[in-house]
C-alpha cells in the first residue's frame, strides 16, 4: 500500500497489525473505519486527498483511480477522493535528512493524518546507493507460512518452475518506452546503471512466446521432471 500514515502511533508495529487485521477482516473496509479506529473526528477533507508529484493526464488532478490496479485497489476500501495534493518538487532521499524535515513542516501529522500516494515517492528504479538495502528485506513468518500452504494445496508434488508473466495492457504500453528509457523498471539490476552490460530491449521487456519457451527449456534440459506453474494477466 502506498498510503502513508503520519500519526505518531503508526510507529507502533503492534497497532499497525491490529488495524490491518481489522480492515482485512471487514467485508468492505472503508475510510470511515480508519477514522473510527484512530479516533479522528476532523480532517476528513484532507484524508480524502490523493497525493501525487504533479497532475496526471489532462486534468489538474492525480486521477488516482484511473486504470488498474489503482481503481480496483481504492474501490476495495470504498475510498473516493475529493481532490488532489501535488507534493512536487518534494522527493524522497534517505541521504538527505533535510528532506524529511521539509515533509514534516509542510505536512504535519496533526493536520495531515494520512498521505494517500498514487505511487511511492521514492525514485524508481531504486538508486544505486540504496540497492544494498534490499538484502535487509525478510519475509515474515506469516507470509512464508502462506506461501508453503499455497504450494501444498495448489501445486502437484515435486519440483516446479514458477513463472510470473507480466503481459497485461499496462505492461505492453510501459514497454513502448524501453528504447528511450533504458533503465526502465529493474533493467539496471541486469544491465548496470550505466548500461555497461548492454541496453534493455523490447524482447527483454515483453518477450515473445518463442523466447519464453527457449528459457524454460534451458532450465529443464538437465532431464529432471518439473511442473510448470504459470501466472499471467492474459492468455
What order do the helices and strands come in, and which of them pair?
Elements: E1 3-5, H1 13-25, H2 31-38, H3 44-47, E2 49-52, H4 70-76, E3 83-86, H5 97-106, E4 114-117, H6 141-154, E5 160-165, H7 169-174, H8 187-191, H9 202-205, H10 209-220, E6 227-232
Parallel strand pairs: 2-3, 2-4, 5-6
Antiparallel strand pairs: 1-4
- Number of contiguous helices: 10
Over the alpha carbons, how many angstroms does the gyration radius reach? Answer: 21 Å
Relative helix content: 25-40%
In what range is the share of β-strand residues?
5-15%
Summed up, what is this model?
The protein is of the alpha/beta class and 235 residues long. It has helices spanning 13-25, 31-38, 44-47, 70-76, 97-106, 141-154, 169-174, 187-191, 202-205, 209-220; strands spanning 3-5, 49-52, 83-86, 114-117, 160-165, 227-232. The protein folds into 2 domains: 40-117, Rossmann fold, CATH 3.40.50.11340; 128-222, 3-Layer(aba) Sandwich (Rossmann fold), CATH 3.40.50.11350.
How would you describe what is shown here?
It is globular and about 60 Å long. A four-stranded mixed β-sheet has the order 1-4-2-3. The protein has two domains: 78 residues, Rossmann fold (3-Layer(aba) Sandwich); 95 residues, Rossmann fold (3-Layer(aba) Sandwich), CATH 3.40.50.11350. The N terminus is likely disordered. The chain is 35% helix and 11% strand. With 235 residues, it is of the alpha/beta class. The protein contains ten helices and six strands; from the N terminus they run E-H-H-H-E-H-E-H-E-H-E-H-H-H-H-E.
Amino acid at each position: 500500500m502506498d498510503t502513508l500514515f503520519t500519526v505518531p502511533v503508526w510507529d507502533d508495529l503492534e497497532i499497525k497489525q491490529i488495524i490491518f487485521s481489522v480492515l482485512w477482516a471487514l467485508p468492505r473496509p472503508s475510510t470511515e473505519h480508519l477514522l473510527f479506529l484512530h479516533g479522528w473526528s476532523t480532517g476528513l477533507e484532507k484524508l480524502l486527498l490523493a497525493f501525487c508529484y504533479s497532475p496526471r493526464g489532462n486534468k489538474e488532478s492525480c486521477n488516482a483511480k484511473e486504470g488498474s490496479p489503482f481503481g480496483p485497489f481504492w474501490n476495495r476500501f470504498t475510498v473516493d477522493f475529493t481532490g488532489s495534493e501535488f507534493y512536487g518538487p518534494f522527493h524522497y532521499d534517505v541521504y538527505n535528512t533535510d528532506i524529511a524535515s521539509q515533509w514534516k513542516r509542510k505536512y504535519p501529522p496533526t493536520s495531515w493524518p494520512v498521505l494517500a500516494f498514487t505511487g511511492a515517492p521514492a525514485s524508481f528504479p531504486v538508486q544505486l546507493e540504496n540497492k544494498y538495502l534490499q538484502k535487509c528485506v525478510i519475509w515474515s513468518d506469516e507470509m512464508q507460512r502462506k506461501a508453503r500452504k499455497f504450494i501444498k494445496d495448489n501445486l502437484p508434488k515435486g519440483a516446479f518452475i514458477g513463472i510470473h508473466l507480466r503481459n497485461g495492457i499496462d505492461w505492453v504500453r510501459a514497454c513502448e518506452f524501453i528504447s528511450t528509457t533504458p533503465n526502465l523498471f529493474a533493467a539496471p539490476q541486469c544491465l548496470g546503471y550505466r548500461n555497461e552490460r548492454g541496453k534493455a530491449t523490447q524482447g527483454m521487456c515483453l518477450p515473445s512466446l518463442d523466447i519464453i519457451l527457449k528459457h524454460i527449456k534451458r532450465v529443464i534440459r538437465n532431464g529432471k521432471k518439473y511442473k510448470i506453474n504459470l501466472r499471467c494477466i492474459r492468455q
